[in-house]
């Protein structure tokens, strides 16, 4: 290493030329990682990183005072890995492993802010909420389709009969409208029964399941 000394007005400037070794990611440092030579090697690196991440969960929860349980944090980590399940390019896999290791090391060393860690957990929670909402929507569509499969003549006769006997409102004319109205009426009755000590929520749910299994409902 050469030093170039330059004296000017009593000040000494030292210019040094450094020899820097870069790894394949473009970063510098003592630790450098080579590219995976096979898909199996890349897969083993991913598995090793995943295990390392799970082992780091207790420290991360402690350092950042997380209210989420160990299982919730582990589920969030698994979801981050699942996002890249279909990545096949070994170079891209190696890059993701390097970035993941870097993120975990920074979290363990408390180099990340608490808000950065919480952002991962909040994004995961929002994703779960959307997935649950989608499942509920799909279930409703499925139930509507099952209801529509009832022969039209029988369904029309039932609706007409119920209207004539004033069992349902006059403005109900479709299965979807009837189903929504029925759910609202059941909820009103449940609230009344619970508030007045007639039944508990658990008892009402058991009664509903029994009626459905034995087909003993009025409608």
UniProtKB/TrEMBL annotation:
Its EC number is 1.6.5.3. Residues 45-105 form the Complex 1 LYR protein domain. Transmembrane segments: none annotated. It is found in: Mitochondrion inner membrane. One of its GO terms (cellular component) is mitochondrial inner membrane. It is a peripheral membrane protein. One of its GO terms (molecular function) is oxidoreductase activity. Pfam families: Complex1_LYR. It is an enzyme of class 1 (oxidoreductase). InterPro entries: Complex1_LYR_dom, Complex1_LYR_NDUFA6_LYRM6, NADH_Ub_cplx-1_asu_su-6. One of its GO terms (biological process) is response to oxidative stress. This is NADH dehydrogenase (Ubiquinone) 1 alpha subcomplex 6 isoform 1. It comes from the Eukaryota. Belongs to the complex I LYR family. The keyword Mitochondrion applies. Keywords: Electron transport, Membrane, Mitochondrion, Mitochondrion inner membrane, Oxidoreductase, Respiratory chain, Transport, Ubiquinone.
């Amino acid at each position: 290493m050469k030093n170039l000394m330059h004296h000017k007005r009593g000040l000494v400037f030292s210019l040094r030329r450094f020899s820097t070794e870069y790894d394949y990611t473009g970063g510098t440092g003592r630790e450098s990682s080579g590219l995976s030579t096979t898909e199996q090697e890349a897969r083993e690196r991913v598995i090793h990183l995943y295990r390392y991440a799970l082992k780091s969960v207790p420290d991360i929860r402690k350092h950042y005072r997380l209210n989420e349980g160990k299982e919730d944090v582990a589920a969030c980590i698994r979801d981050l890995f699942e996002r890249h399940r279909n990545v096949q390019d070994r170079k891209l896999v190696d890059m993701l492993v390097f970035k993941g290791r870097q993120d975990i090391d920074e979290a363990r060393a408390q180099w990340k802010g608490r808000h950065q860690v919480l952002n991962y957990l909040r994004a995961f929670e929002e994703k779960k909420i959307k997935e649950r909402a989608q499942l509920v929507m799909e279930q409703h569509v499925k139930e509507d389709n099952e209801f529509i499969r009832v022969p039209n003549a029988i369904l029309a006769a039932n609706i007409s009969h119920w209207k004539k006997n004033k069992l349902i409102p006059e403005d109900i004319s479709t299965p979807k409208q009837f189903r929504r109205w029925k759910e609202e009426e059941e909820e009103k009755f449940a609230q009344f029964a619970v508030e007045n000590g007639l039944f508990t929520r658990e008892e009402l749910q058991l009664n509903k399941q029994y009626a459905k299994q034995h087909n003993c409902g009025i409608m």
